[in-house]
Amino acid sequence: MNGTLLLRFAVAFILLTHSVVGIFNNGINDFGNLYLNQIGFAPFGVFLAWSIKLSHIVAAVLLLLNKYVKLASFVTIFVLIMGIILVHFQEGWFVVGGGRNGAEYNFLLIIVLIAIMYPNGFKKGEIV
């Protein structure tokens, strides 16, 4: 059993639940129309929102299959960093408790994805 199985499962579960719910409650379209389009991504907000959520679903499947893990993780990390910059940074650090909707959750997911990508640590010269 791969040492990253539990982490890959946990991240895949989070990515899937975060994405699939938005498909059925119109959350993806709302995010595109009511947020991304409003902050300057019009007329591409809905396309970007769907691209983000579909990338989460693809990444979740790849993590579960243990295939193209680094590529899936890099794409997801990019999305999470952009989420911090565009959405969460202005709310501060805390998701709950000391604040609301902050960056701490995305930060944790980024670190977990890095741990999945490099389960034995970094080797000299290794990036991909």
Automatic annotation (TrEMBL):
Keywords: Cell membrane, Membrane, Transmembrane, Transmembrane helix
Membrane spanning stretches: 43-64, 71-90, 105-122
Main location (coarse class): membrane
One annotated Gene Ontology cellular component of this protein: plasma membrane
Membrane topology: Multi-pass membrane protein
Compartments, record wording: Cell membrane
Family, as annotated: Belongs to the DoxX family.
Protein name: DoxX family protein
Species for this entry: Flavobacterium hibernum
Upper lineage: Bacteria, Pseudomonadati, Bacteroidota, Flavobacteriia, Flavobacteriales
